[in-house]
Each structure stands twice: as structure tokens, then as C-alpha cells.
Design brief:
With 307 residues, this protein is an alpha+beta fold. The chain folds into two domains: 196 residues, Cation efflux protein transmembrane domain (Alpha-lytic protease prodomain-like); 87 residues, Alpha-Beta Plaits (2-Layer Sandwich), CATH 3.30.70. Helix content is 66%, strand content 11%. The chain contains ten helices and four strands. Strands 1-4-3-2 form a four-stranded mixed β-sheet. β2 and β3 form a beta hairpin. α2 runs antiparallel to α3 and α3 runs parallel beside α5. The longest helix has 30 residues.
Amino acid sequence: MGTGHDHGAGGAAPDHRARLGVAFGITATILVAQAVGAVLTGSLALLTDTAHMLTDSTGLLVALVAVSLALRPATKRRTWGFRRVEVLAALAQAALLLAVGVYAVVEGVRRLVAPPEVPSSELLVFGVVGLVGNVVAIAVLASGRRANLNLRAAFLEVVNDALGSVGVVVAAVVIATTGYQRADTIAALVIAALIVPRAFRLLREATAVLMEFTPEGLDLDDVRAHILSLDHVEDVHDLHASTVATGLPTISAHVVVDDACFRDGHALEIVERVRTCVAHHFPVSVEHSTFQLETAALRDREAHGHA
């Protein structure tokens, strides 16, 4: 006897698409300005920040496409719609961020040995332009950053860009006041240090969803014990939990009950109690659940069949 509790795949709110569109426009504009600045000044910090901006502009564009796809409804061929596109987009962004961080470290070490001359005044101008633009983009994305992995990735990337611009500005000021040219390279390495840990964290989170790991905060041993504590429940097996997309955890299991439950009408009551249990009793509320009720004899036959 199988049953499911299905909540629609839903979709990202349309205003998320508008926010991402504005942020992408700002970031793309800053990218062009900083690319020109990197060529004119030869600054590694500005070049690293420009590469970061390229990554983030690409990431924001991917995020914008992902949000648009997520708004498309589910179909009989795509029962979750495009909800998981946000996870794929976050994974791509994390990989790009990691690549930029590694490049900055390698090039930074080389330039520490032989630092080139960097004009501080031009570097300061482009750094301030980048900082102002990123602050505006942060303001646009701030309120929606907790909506899903994709928007969180976009917000973190813009914050990293702003911190990178701060590094460029500081490097320009140090060079202008002290003539210490390695300040530019040090700033580039600081930017790389900001990029890499966040890239790894985002990569880990996206991978956990794609590998269908148990949702963080949900202890399946506790779930099993709580279901077993219900009247008439004899066993729980094939218990699985995963995450389809942000805010959409799922769980399924085979629940063994007394034979009498199928004769006296208790079966449906037990299903509802188990559903309520996983939806309200644990830190992670799982409202999309599928439970198969079976007798001990059926469980034993299945176990023999898989032996």
C-alpha cells in the first residue's frame, strides 16, 4: 500500500528575476570598467578582481536563467519542473570561483618575487568605481539572498566583489603613500583568500543536494525511532531522505504494521500519523513524504527476493 504527500514544485518569485537582472547589469558594467583598468594599470589586484567579476557576471547570468526556468511549471515528464536548475547553477558558479582563486594564488606568488610598477591614481579610480557598483548590487540582492542556493550564491559573489574592490582601493592608497608596489600583489592574494573558502562551501552544499545526501539537520535515526514508537508499527526499513532543491526536502520509507491494520481500517490512520510526524516533529519539516505500508510477511518475502 503506497501513498504520497505531494506539494507542487512551485517556483522562484518573479521579483527574484528582476533583482538578478539589475545585479547582472551593474556587475557587467563594472566588469567592462575594471577590464579597461586592469589593462591600463597592469595591476594584479585589479586583474584578479576583474576575473572575479567575469566569473560573477557569468554566475549572475546563469542564476537569472535558472530563476526563469524555475518559474516553468511541472509536467508529466518533469515532475519537479526545473527546481534543481538552481543547484546546477550554484555548482557551476562555485567551480568558476575556485578556478579564479587558484589563478590568483599562482600569479600572486610569481609577482611577489618580481613586482611590476602599478600607477596608484588610476588604480584608485577603478577600485572606487567597482566598490560603488558592488554596494549597489548588494543592496539589490540583500533581501532575497536566503530564498535559495542560487540567490545565495549570487549575493555572496557580489559581496566578494565588493571586498575585492576594497582590497584594490587599499592597495592603491598604500602604493600612493609608501611606494610599496607589492601591496597590489598582496591585495590580489587577499581577494583569492576570500574567494576559495566560499567556493568550497558552496561546492559542498550543491554537491550534497546532487548526491541526494540526507538534508542537514535531519537525523534519520531519530526519524526511525519516532515512527517505531507509533502504535501498531513493527518495523521501518528502506528509509531515505534527500533534497530536491532549496526548501524542498523529501522522505520515503517502508513501514511494517500489524496485519490487523489492513482489516480494521487502521492503515490510513497510521499513514496520516507518520506524515504528520515527519512534517512537524523534527527540526527539518518534510512535507513531501511517501510511505509504503506492508505486513511482516511481505517484508520477509522482499528480503528473500533481494538476498
